[in-house]
Amino acid sequence: MTESQNTTLLRVLWALALVFFALRFLWPGDTVYILDEAFMQIRLDEYFAAGTIPFSNSRGSSIPLPYGPGALWFYMVARLFTWKPVFIELYHLCFQILGYALFLRTLQKAYGRESAAWCALLVATSPLLFFFSRHPWDSTLYVPLGGAILFFLQKLKEGGREFPLHAALGALGGYAVNTHLMFGPVFLALATTLLLWNLRKHSLRKARSWALLATFSAGALLVLLPYLIEAARIAAAEHPLEHARAKSHWGDGRNLWWIFLRTTLFSSLFGARAMLDDLRAQFFAYVGQPFAFFYKVDIFGWVGKLAAWGAAFAVLSRLVRLRFDDDPLRIFASLAFLFCVIVYQYLNIPMAPHYFTPIWWFVFLGIALAIQNLRYLWRWIFIAFLTGTILVNGSYVAFAMVYLHKNKGARNMEASVAVSEQLRNLAWICEWGRSRGKTDVKIYKDAFLGEPAFDFLPKHMPECSGVTTTLVTDPHAADILLHHPRDSQTSAALVADPTNNP
Fold first, then answer.
1. Helix (H) or strand (E) holding 171
2. Strand, helix or coil at 482?
3. Which residue, among 154, 166, 161, 148, has the nearest Cα to 112 in the 3D structure?
Protein backbone atom coordinates (compact mmCIF):
# COMPACT_ATOMS: atom_id res chain seq x y z
CA MET A 1 0.00 0.00 0.00
CA THR A 2 1.38 3.40 -0.97
CA GLU A 3 1.74 6.24 1.53
CA SER A 4 -1.14 8.10 -0.12
CA GLN A 5 -3.42 5.05 0.10
CA ASN A 6 -2.46 4.47 3.71
CA THR A 7 -3.24 8.10 4.60
CA THR A 8 -6.65 7.79 2.90
CA LEU A 9 -7.38 4.59 4.82
CA LEU A 10 -6.51 6.22 8.14
CA ARG A 11 -8.80 9.15 7.35
CA VAL A 12 -11.64 6.74 6.58
CA LEU A 13 -11.07 4.90 9.88
CA TRP A 14 -11.12 8.15 11.85
CA ALA A 15 -14.22 9.39 9.99
CA LEU A 16 -16.10 6.18 10.78
CA ALA A 17 -14.94 6.34 14.40
CA LEU A 18 -16.25 9.90 14.69
CA VAL A 19 -19.62 8.76 13.34
CA PHE A 20 -19.93 6.11 16.05
CA PHE A 21 -18.75 8.52 18.74
CA ALA A 22 -21.40 11.00 17.55
CA LEU A 23 -24.09 8.29 17.59
CA ARG A 24 -23.76 8.20 21.37
CA PHE A 25 -25.59 11.54 21.47
CA LEU A 26 -28.57 10.20 19.50
CA TRP A 27 -31.79 9.49 21.45
CA PRO A 28 -30.37 10.36 24.90
CA GLY A 29 -33.76 9.63 26.45
CA ASP A 30 -33.13 5.91 25.86
CA THR A 31 -30.57 5.85 28.66
CA VAL A 32 -30.62 3.27 31.45
CA TYR A 33 -32.28 4.32 34.73
CA ILE A 34 -32.81 1.31 36.94
CA LEU A 35 -31.22 1.16 40.39
CA ASP A 36 -27.87 2.80 41.09
CA GLU A 37 -28.50 5.68 38.68
CA ALA A 38 -31.45 6.90 40.76
CA PHE A 39 -30.05 5.70 44.08
CA MET A 40 -26.96 7.92 43.75
CA GLN A 41 -29.22 10.90 43.07
CA ILE A 42 -31.33 10.07 46.15
CA ARG A 43 -28.18 10.05 48.26
CA LEU A 44 -27.16 13.40 46.80
CA ASP A 45 -30.58 14.79 47.76
CA GLU A 46 -29.88 13.71 51.33
CA TYR A 47 -26.48 15.38 51.38
CA PHE A 48 -27.85 18.55 49.80
CA ALA A 49 -30.64 18.66 52.39
CA ALA A 50 -28.13 18.21 55.23
CA GLY A 51 -25.67 20.68 53.71
CA THR A 52 -22.83 18.12 53.91
CA ILE A 53 -20.31 16.54 51.54
CA PRO A 54 -20.39 12.72 51.09
CA PHE A 55 -17.44 10.71 52.36
CA SER A 56 -18.77 7.28 51.33
CA ASN A 57 -21.24 5.66 48.95
CA SER A 58 -23.25 2.41 48.87
CA ARG A 59 -21.79 -0.91 50.04
CA GLY A 60 -20.08 -3.61 48.01
CA SER A 61 -21.06 -7.26 47.73
CA SER A 62 -17.69 -9.04 47.63
CA ILE A 63 -16.39 -7.05 50.61
CA PRO A 64 -19.28 -5.29 52.41
CA LEU A 65 -17.46 -2.01 52.90
CA PRO A 66 -18.96 1.20 51.52
CA TYR A 67 -17.48 2.50 48.29
CA GLY A 68 -15.77 5.85 48.23
CA PRO A 69 -17.69 9.02 47.33
CA GLY A 70 -15.92 9.66 44.00
CA ALA A 71 -19.01 9.02 41.87
CA LEU A 72 -21.15 11.20 44.13
CA TRP A 73 -18.62 14.02 43.86
CA PHE A 74 -18.70 13.70 40.07
CA TYR A 75 -22.50 13.83 39.76
CA MET A 76 -22.80 16.48 42.47
CA VAL A 77 -21.37 18.99 40.01
CA ALA A 78 -24.14 18.25 37.49
CA ARG A 79 -26.78 18.39 40.22
CA LEU A 80 -25.82 21.99 40.96
CA PHE A 81 -27.55 22.80 37.66
CA THR A 82 -30.34 20.24 37.20
CA TRP A 83 -31.88 16.99 38.37
CA LYS A 84 -32.90 15.85 34.87
CA PRO A 85 -31.56 12.39 33.98
CA VAL A 86 -30.90 13.21 30.31
CA PHE A 87 -28.78 16.24 31.21
CA ILE A 88 -26.81 14.14 33.72
CA GLU A 89 -26.34 11.46 31.05
CA LEU A 90 -24.98 14.01 28.57
CA TYR A 91 -22.68 15.45 31.23
CA HIS A 92 -21.38 11.93 31.86
CA LEU A 93 -21.09 11.27 28.11
CA CYS A 94 -18.89 14.33 27.52
CA PHE A 95 -16.37 12.96 30.02
CA GLN A 96 -16.50 9.58 28.27
CA ILE A 97 -15.57 11.28 25.00
CA LEU A 98 -12.74 13.09 26.79
CA GLY A 99 -11.47 9.74 28.07
CA TYR A 100 -11.49 8.26 24.56
CA ALA A 101 -9.64 11.31 23.22
CA LEU A 102 -6.89 11.09 25.85
CA PHE A 103 -6.51 7.36 25.31
CA LEU A 104 -6.32 7.57 21.51
CA ARG A 105 -3.90 10.48 21.71
CA THR A 106 -1.74 8.31 23.95
CA LEU A 107 -1.84 5.43 21.47
CA GLN A 108 -0.89 7.72 18.60
CA LYS A 109 2.11 9.05 20.53
CA ALA A 110 3.21 5.63 21.78
CA TYR A 111 2.47 3.28 18.87
CA GLY A 112 1.89 5.40 15.80
CA ARG A 113 -0.92 6.82 13.65
CA GLU A 114 -2.05 3.49 12.22
CA SER A 115 -2.44 1.83 15.63
CA ALA A 116 -4.41 4.82 16.89
CA ALA A 117 -6.73 4.90 13.86
CA TRP A 118 -7.65 1.21 14.03
CA CYS A 119 -8.12 1.37 17.80
CA ALA A 120 -10.25 4.50 17.43
CA LEU A 121 -12.77 2.59 15.34
CA LEU A 122 -12.58 -0.45 17.65
CA VAL A 123 -13.22 1.74 20.69
CA ALA A 124 -16.02 3.62 18.92
CA THR A 125 -17.84 0.41 17.91
CA SER A 126 -17.23 -1.55 21.13
CA PRO A 127 -20.74 -2.55 22.26
CA LEU A 128 -19.92 -2.33 25.96
CA LEU A 129 -18.15 1.01 25.68
CA PHE A 130 -20.93 2.39 23.48
CA PHE A 131 -23.75 1.63 25.92
CA PHE A 132 -21.69 2.24 29.07
CA SER A 133 -20.92 5.73 27.74
CA ARG A 134 -24.69 6.46 27.84
CA HIS A 135 -25.05 5.00 31.33
CA PRO A 136 -24.48 7.49 34.21
CA TRP A 137 -23.05 5.01 36.70
CA ASP A 138 -20.02 4.79 38.99
CA SER A 139 -17.95 2.09 37.25
CA THR A 140 -18.30 3.82 33.86
CA LEU A 141 -16.18 6.68 35.22
CA TYR A 142 -13.14 4.43 34.72
CA VAL A 143 -13.22 5.29 31.02
CA PRO A 144 -12.09 8.92 31.48
CA LEU A 145 -9.98 8.04 34.53
CA GLY A 146 -8.19 5.25 32.66
CA GLY A 147 -7.63 7.46 29.62
CA ALA A 148 -6.13 10.21 31.80
CA ILE A 149 -3.83 7.82 33.71
CA LEU A 150 -2.42 6.38 30.47
CA PHE A 151 -2.04 9.87 29.03
CA PHE A 152 0.10 11.00 31.97
CA LEU A 153 2.14 7.78 31.93
CA GLN A 154 2.97 8.49 28.29
CA LYS A 155 3.95 12.05 29.22
CA LEU A 156 6.28 10.56 31.84
CA LYS A 157 7.83 8.33 29.18
CA GLU A 158 8.33 11.34 26.91
CA GLY A 159 10.36 13.12 29.59
CA GLY A 160 7.68 15.37 31.04
CA ARG A 161 8.03 17.10 34.40
CA GLU A 162 8.24 14.22 36.84
CA PHE A 163 6.93 15.73 40.08
CA PRO A 164 3.69 17.18 38.64
CA LEU A 165 3.10 13.97 36.69
CA HIS A 166 3.59 11.76 39.76
CA ALA A 167 1.24 14.02 41.73
CA ALA A 168 -1.39 13.88 38.97
CA LEU A 169 -1.11 10.08 38.68
CA GLY A 170 -1.49 9.75 42.45
CA ALA A 171 -4.57 11.99 42.50
CA LEU A 172 -6.18 10.16 39.57
CA GLY A 173 -5.41 6.74 41.06
CA GLY A 174 -6.72 7.84 44.44
CA TYR A 175 -9.90 9.23 42.88
CA ALA A 176 -10.40 5.95 41.00
CA VAL A 177 -10.16 3.93 44.24
CA ASN A 178 -12.41 6.54 45.82
CA THR A 179 -15.02 5.75 43.15
CA HIS A 180 -15.13 1.96 43.59
CA LEU A 181 -12.99 -0.59 45.40
CA MET A 182 -12.77 -2.68 42.22
CA PHE A 183 -9.96 -0.33 41.14
CA GLY A 184 -7.76 -1.58 43.99
CA PRO A 185 -5.62 -4.03 41.96
CA VAL A 186 -5.18 -1.48 39.16
CA PHE A 187 -4.03 1.13 41.66
CA LEU A 188 -1.53 -1.40 43.00
CA ALA A 189 -0.34 -1.95 39.42
CA LEU A 190 0.05 1.81 38.91
CA ALA A 191 2.10 2.20 42.10
CA THR A 192 4.29 -0.79 41.15
CA THR A 193 4.78 0.59 37.65
CA LEU A 194 6.07 3.89 39.03
CA LEU A 195 8.31 2.03 41.46
CA LEU A 196 9.85 0.00 38.62
CA TRP A 197 10.08 3.05 36.37
CA ASN A 198 11.99 5.02 38.98
CA LEU A 199 14.16 2.02 39.77
CA ARG A 200 15.11 1.76 36.10
CA LYS A 201 15.59 5.49 35.53
CA HIS A 202 17.03 6.81 38.78
CA SER A 203 17.80 3.77 40.95
CA LEU A 204 16.07 3.59 44.30
CA ARG A 205 19.29 4.58 46.03
CA LYS A 206 18.74 8.16 44.88
CA ALA A 207 16.72 10.62 46.92
CA ARG A 208 14.91 11.77 43.76
CA SER A 209 13.28 8.36 43.32
CA TRP A 210 11.89 8.36 46.84
CA ALA A 211 10.77 11.96 46.52
CA LEU A 212 8.84 11.12 43.34
CA LEU A 213 7.19 8.08 44.95
CA ALA A 214 6.31 10.19 47.99
CA THR A 215 4.74 12.76 45.66
CA PHE A 216 2.63 10.03 44.06
CA SER A 217 1.55 8.75 47.48
CA ALA A 218 0.71 12.25 48.69
CA GLY A 219 -1.44 12.89 45.63
CA ALA A 220 -3.39 9.69 46.25
CA LEU A 221 -3.70 10.26 49.99
CA LEU A 222 -4.96 13.79 49.50
CA VAL A 223 -7.98 12.45 47.61
CA LEU A 224 -8.45 9.24 49.62
CA LEU A 225 -8.00 10.46 53.18
CA PRO A 226 -11.64 11.46 53.93
CA TYR A 227 -12.88 8.10 52.65
CA LEU A 228 -10.17 6.11 54.46
CA ILE A 229 -11.13 7.71 57.76
CA GLU A 230 -14.81 6.91 57.15
CA ALA A 231 -14.06 3.33 56.01
CA ALA A 232 -11.81 2.73 59.03
CA ARG A 233 -14.57 3.93 61.36
CA ILE A 234 -17.11 1.57 59.75
CA ALA A 235 -14.67 -1.35 59.68
CA ALA A 236 -13.90 -0.92 63.39
CA ALA A 237 -17.58 -0.82 64.28
CA GLU A 238 -18.99 -3.52 62.00
CA HIS A 239 -16.08 -5.88 61.10
CA PRO A 240 -17.32 -6.23 57.49
CA LEU A 241 -14.37 -8.37 56.34
CA GLU A 242 -15.77 -11.25 58.41
CA HIS A 243 -18.74 -11.33 56.02
CA ALA A 244 -16.73 -11.03 52.78
CA ARG A 245 -17.31 -13.46 49.96
CA ALA A 246 -13.56 -14.06 49.55
CA LYS A 247 -12.00 -17.46 48.90
CA SER A 248 -15.20 -19.28 47.93
CA HIS A 249 -13.83 -19.74 44.40
CA TRP A 250 -10.10 -19.77 45.19
CA GLY A 251 -8.56 -22.60 43.21
CA ASP A 252 -11.58 -22.94 40.91
CA GLY A 253 -9.96 -23.18 37.47
CA ARG A 254 -13.17 -22.57 35.56
CA ASN A 255 -13.82 -19.34 37.44
CA LEU A 256 -10.22 -18.28 36.82
CA TRP A 257 -10.63 -18.91 33.08
CA TRP A 258 -13.74 -16.73 32.92
CA ILE A 259 -11.98 -13.90 34.75
CA PHE A 260 -9.07 -14.32 32.35
CA LEU A 261 -11.43 -13.96 29.38
CA ARG A 262 -13.21 -10.94 30.79
CA THR A 263 -10.04 -8.90 30.98
CA THR A 264 -10.48 -8.46 27.21
CA LEU A 265 -14.26 -7.96 27.09
CA PHE A 266 -14.25 -4.53 25.57
CA SER A 267 -12.93 -5.16 22.06
CA SER A 268 -15.55 -7.63 20.81
CA LEU A 269 -18.88 -9.29 21.52
CA PHE A 270 -17.61 -12.38 23.34
CA GLY A 271 -19.45 -12.56 26.64
CA ALA A 272 -20.42 -8.92 26.23
CA ARG A 273 -23.73 -8.74 24.41
CA ALA A 274 -24.36 -5.36 25.91
CA MET A 275 -27.84 -4.54 27.21
CA LEU A 276 -29.52 -7.59 25.64
CA ASP A 277 -27.61 -10.61 26.95
CA ASP A 278 -30.64 -12.26 28.57
CA LEU A 279 -32.89 -11.36 25.59
CA ARG A 280 -30.68 -12.87 22.92
CA ALA A 281 -33.40 -15.03 21.37
CA GLN A 282 -35.70 -12.05 20.81
CA PHE A 283 -32.89 -9.81 19.58
CA PHE A 284 -31.48 -12.44 17.23
CA ALA A 285 -34.95 -12.95 15.77
CA TYR A 286 -35.12 -9.19 15.24
CA VAL A 287 -31.78 -8.92 13.39
CA GLY A 288 -32.11 -12.20 11.47
CA GLN A 289 -29.36 -14.12 9.71
CA PRO A 290 -26.44 -13.85 9.06
CA PHE A 291 -26.06 -11.23 11.80
CA ALA A 292 -27.35 -13.53 14.54
CA PHE A 293 -24.72 -16.13 13.68
CA PHE A 294 -21.82 -13.70 14.09
CA TYR A 295 -23.32 -12.32 17.31
CA LYS A 296 -23.50 -15.84 18.75
CA VAL A 297 -19.98 -16.87 17.73
CA ASP A 298 -17.14 -14.42 18.27
CA ILE A 299 -15.07 -15.58 15.30
CA PHE A 300 -13.04 -12.41 14.77
CA GLY A 301 -12.56 -11.11 18.30
CA TRP A 302 -10.02 -13.69 19.41
CA VAL A 303 -7.07 -12.05 17.65
CA GLY A 304 -7.41 -8.92 19.79
CA LYS A 305 -7.55 -11.01 22.95
CA LEU A 306 -4.48 -13.02 21.95
CA ALA A 307 -2.58 -9.84 21.14
CA ALA A 308 -3.31 -8.35 24.57
CA TRP A 309 -2.50 -11.52 26.48
CA GLY A 310 0.65 -12.10 24.44
CA ALA A 311 1.93 -8.58 25.10
CA ALA A 312 1.20 -8.91 28.83
CA PHE A 313 2.94 -12.26 29.20
CA ALA A 314 5.97 -10.99 27.29
CA VAL A 315 6.43 -8.14 29.79
CA LEU A 316 5.70 -10.33 32.82
CA SER A 317 8.22 -12.97 31.71
CA ARG A 318 10.89 -10.27 31.50
CA LEU A 319 9.93 -8.88 34.91
CA VAL A 320 10.36 -12.33 36.45
CA ARG A 321 13.96 -12.23 35.14
CA LEU A 322 14.36 -8.68 36.55
CA ARG A 323 14.47 -7.15 33.08
CA PHE A 324 12.41 -3.95 33.05
CA ASP A 325 10.58 -2.75 29.97
CA ASP A 326 11.25 0.81 28.81
CA ASP A 327 7.54 1.46 28.20
CA PRO A 328 5.52 2.32 31.34
CA LEU A 329 2.27 1.73 29.43
CA ARG A 330 3.18 -1.91 28.80
CA ILE A 331 4.37 -2.42 32.38
CA PHE A 332 1.16 -0.90 33.74
CA ALA A 333 -1.06 -2.95 31.41
CA SER A 334 0.70 -6.22 32.26
CA LEU A 335 0.63 -5.66 36.01
CA ALA A 336 -2.99 -4.45 35.96
CA PHE A 337 -3.96 -7.62 34.09
CA LEU A 338 -2.03 -9.85 36.51
CA PHE A 339 -3.27 -8.20 39.71
CA CYS A 340 -6.89 -8.11 38.50
CA VAL A 341 -6.85 -11.82 37.70
CA ILE A 342 -5.35 -12.70 41.09
CA VAL A 343 -7.46 -10.36 43.25
CA TYR A 344 -10.73 -10.94 41.38
CA GLN A 345 -10.25 -14.69 41.65
CA TYR A 346 -9.49 -14.46 45.36
CA LEU A 347 -12.50 -12.24 46.07
CA ASN A 348 -14.84 -14.17 43.77
CA ILE A 349 -15.73 -11.02 41.85
CA PRO A 350 -18.95 -11.49 39.81
CA MET A 351 -18.60 -12.00 36.07
CA ALA A 352 -20.69 -8.93 35.21
CA PRO A 353 -18.88 -6.81 32.59
CA HIS A 354 -18.86 -3.59 34.60
CA TYR A 355 -16.46 -5.11 37.14
CA PHE A 356 -13.80 -5.07 34.44
CA THR A 357 -14.11 -1.41 33.45
CA PRO A 358 -10.94 -0.52 35.42
CA ILE A 359 -8.97 -2.25 32.63
CA TRP A 360 -11.22 -1.47 29.66
CA TRP A 361 -8.14 -0.15 27.81
CA PHE A 362 -6.00 -3.29 28.29
CA VAL A 363 -7.08 -5.12 25.14
CA PHE A 364 -6.78 -2.03 22.92
CA LEU A 365 -3.23 -1.42 24.13
CA GLY A 366 -2.32 -4.97 23.09
CA ILE A 367 -3.96 -4.50 19.70
CA ALA A 368 -2.10 -1.21 19.12
CA LEU A 369 1.22 -2.86 19.94
CA ALA A 370 0.49 -5.74 17.55
CA ILE A 371 -0.36 -3.35 14.70
CA GLN A 372 2.92 -1.56 15.29
CA ASN A 373 5.05 -4.71 15.35
CA LEU A 374 3.46 -7.28 13.01
CA ARG A 375 4.87 -7.52 9.49
CA TYR A 376 4.01 -9.05 6.12
CA LEU A 377 1.32 -11.76 5.98
CA TRP A 378 0.71 -11.86 9.75
CA ARG A 379 -0.05 -8.14 9.73
CA TRP A 380 -2.64 -8.46 6.95
CA ILE A 381 -4.29 -11.43 8.66
CA PHE A 382 -4.48 -9.45 11.90
CA ILE A 383 -5.95 -6.40 10.13
CA ALA A 384 -8.48 -8.61 8.34
CA PHE A 385 -9.70 -10.03 11.65
CA LEU A 386 -9.90 -6.55 13.14
CA THR A 387 -12.02 -5.48 10.18
CA GLY A 388 -14.36 -8.40 10.84
CA THR A 389 -14.56 -7.43 14.52
CA ILE A 390 -15.43 -3.84 13.61
CA LEU A 391 -18.16 -4.94 11.19
CA VAL A 392 -19.73 -7.26 13.76
CA ASN A 393 -19.47 -4.71 16.58
CA GLY A 394 -20.72 -1.80 14.49
CA SER A 395 -23.74 -3.68 13.21
CA TYR A 396 -24.57 -4.89 16.73
CA VAL A 397 -24.41 -1.35 18.11
CA ALA A 398 -26.65 -0.03 15.31
CA PHE A 399 -29.23 -2.83 15.61
CA ALA A 400 -29.26 -2.73 19.42
CA MET A 401 -29.64 1.04 19.49
CA VAL A 402 -32.63 0.93 17.11
CA TYR A 403 -34.14 -2.07 18.95
CA LEU A 404 -33.96 -0.29 22.31
CA HIS A 405 -35.37 2.94 20.86
CA LYS A 406 -38.20 1.18 19.05
CA ASN A 407 -39.18 -0.83 22.16
CA LYS A 408 -38.70 2.00 24.69
CA GLY A 409 -35.96 -0.05 26.32
CA ALA A 410 -36.00 -3.78 26.98
CA ARG A 411 -37.71 -6.21 29.30
CA ASN A 412 -34.63 -6.94 31.39
CA MET A 413 -32.67 -5.33 34.19
CA GLU A 414 -29.71 -4.44 31.97
CA ALA A 415 -31.59 -1.90 29.84
CA SER A 416 -34.97 -1.68 31.60
CA VAL A 417 -37.45 0.95 30.48
CA ALA A 418 -35.96 4.01 28.78
CA VAL A 419 -35.89 6.98 31.13
CA SER A 420 -37.92 9.10 28.69
CA GLU A 421 -40.71 6.50 28.90
CA GLN A 422 -40.51 6.50 32.69
CA LEU A 423 -40.82 10.30 32.79
CA ARG A 424 -43.75 10.28 30.36
CA ASN A 425 -45.59 7.67 32.36
CA LEU A 426 -44.97 9.27 35.75
CA ALA A 427 -46.21 12.61 34.40
CA TRP A 428 -49.46 10.94 33.27
CA ILE A 429 -49.89 9.15 36.61
CA CYS A 430 -49.39 12.35 38.59
CA GLU A 431 -51.86 14.24 36.39
CA TRP A 432 -54.34 11.38 36.76
CA GLY A 433 -54.01 11.52 40.54
CA ARG A 434 -54.31 15.31 40.66
CA SER A 435 -57.45 15.26 38.51
CA ARG A 436 -59.06 12.92 41.06
CA GLY A 437 -57.92 14.79 44.14
CA LYS A 438 -55.36 12.16 45.16
CA THR A 439 -52.21 13.39 46.85
CA ASP A 440 -50.69 9.88 46.99
CA VAL A 441 -51.08 7.51 44.06
CA LYS A 442 -50.44 3.86 44.91
CA ILE A 443 -48.82 1.88 42.10
CA TYR A 444 -48.48 -1.87 41.64
CA LYS A 445 -45.46 -2.46 39.41
CA ASP A 446 -45.47 -5.44 37.06
CA ALA A 447 -42.68 -4.21 34.79
CA PHE A 448 -38.89 -4.23 34.48
CA LEU A 449 -38.30 -1.09 36.50
CA GLY A 450 -36.10 -0.34 39.49
CA GLU A 451 -37.76 1.01 42.62
CA PRO A 452 -35.35 3.95 43.30
CA ALA A 453 -36.60 5.80 40.20
CA PHE A 454 -40.05 6.02 41.83
CA ASP A 455 -38.46 7.60 44.88
CA PHE A 456 -36.37 10.16 42.97
CA LEU A 457 -38.10 11.25 39.77
CA PRO A 458 -41.58 12.30 41.07
CA LYS A 459 -40.00 14.42 43.82
CA HIS A 460 -38.33 16.60 41.20
CA MET A 461 -40.79 16.54 38.29
CA PRO A 462 -42.89 19.73 38.04
CA GLU A 463 -45.76 17.58 36.78
CA CYS A 464 -45.80 15.74 40.12
CA SER A 465 -45.84 18.81 42.36
CA GLY A 466 -48.26 18.11 45.23
CA VAL A 467 -48.60 14.42 44.29
CA THR A 468 -46.54 11.51 45.61
CA THR A 469 -46.28 7.99 44.23
CA THR A 470 -46.03 4.89 46.40
CA LEU A 471 -45.21 1.37 45.24
CA VAL A 472 -47.38 -1.35 46.79
CA THR A 473 -47.01 -5.13 46.70
CA ASP A 474 -50.75 -5.90 46.63
CA PRO A 475 -52.50 -5.12 43.32
CA HIS A 476 -55.83 -4.88 45.17
CA ALA A 477 -54.46 -1.94 47.19
CA ALA A 478 -53.21 -0.08 44.12
CA ASP A 479 -54.71 2.85 42.26
CA ILE A 480 -52.63 2.08 39.14
CA LEU A 481 -51.44 -1.18 37.61
CA LEU A 482 -48.20 -0.48 35.76
CA HIS A 483 -47.23 -3.07 33.18
CA HIS A 484 -45.86 -3.64 29.70
CA PRO A 485 -48.21 -4.04 26.71
CA ARG A 486 -50.00 -7.40 26.85
CA ASP A 487 -50.03 -7.74 23.06
CA SER A 488 -46.24 -7.57 22.66
CA GLN A 489 -43.43 -9.81 23.86
CA THR A 490 -40.69 -7.25 23.25
CA SER A 491 -42.03 -3.75 23.92
CA ALA A 492 -40.84 -2.22 27.21
CA ALA A 493 -43.31 0.66 26.92
CA LEU A 494 -45.36 1.29 30.04
CA VAL A 495 -49.12 1.02 30.32
CA ALA A 496 -50.81 2.56 33.38
CA ASP A 497 -54.27 1.11 34.03
CA PRO A 498 -56.46 2.60 36.79
CA THR A 499 -57.82 -0.16 39.02
CA ASN A 500 -60.99 1.59 40.28
CA ASN A 501 -60.16 0.18 43.72
CA PRO A 502 -61.82 2.12 46.56
1. helix 162-179
2. strand
3. 154
In terms of Cα–Cα distance, which of 302, 470, 492 is closest to 404?
492
Q: What is the spatial distance between Cα 57 and Cα 179, in angstroms, rounded to a whole number?
A: 9
Cβ-based neighbours of 250, under 8 Å, separated by 6 or more: 345, 346, 348
pLDDT tens across 9-53, in order? Answer: 999 999 999 999 999 999 999 998 988 999 999 999 999 999 999
Nearest to 367 by CA among 298, 315, 311: 311
Give the helix ranges, DSSP H, for 407-462: 419-435, 452-460
In 3D space, the residue among 38, 105, 49 whose CA is nearest the CA of residue 416 turns out to be 38
Strand order in the sheet with 440-446: 468-472, 440-446, 480-483, 495-498
Amino acid at the residue 450: G
Give the contacts of 441 (CB within 8 A, at least 6 positions apart).
429, 430, 432, 433, 467, 468, 469, 470, 479, 480
CA-CA-CA-CA torsion sign (135, 100, 16, 294): negative
Q: What is the pTM of this model?
A: 0.95
Q: How far apart are the first and last CA of the chain?
A: 77
Q: What is the pLDDT of residues 353-377, one digit of tens each?
A: 899 999 999 999 999 999 999 999 9
pLDDT of 232 > 70? The answer is: yes
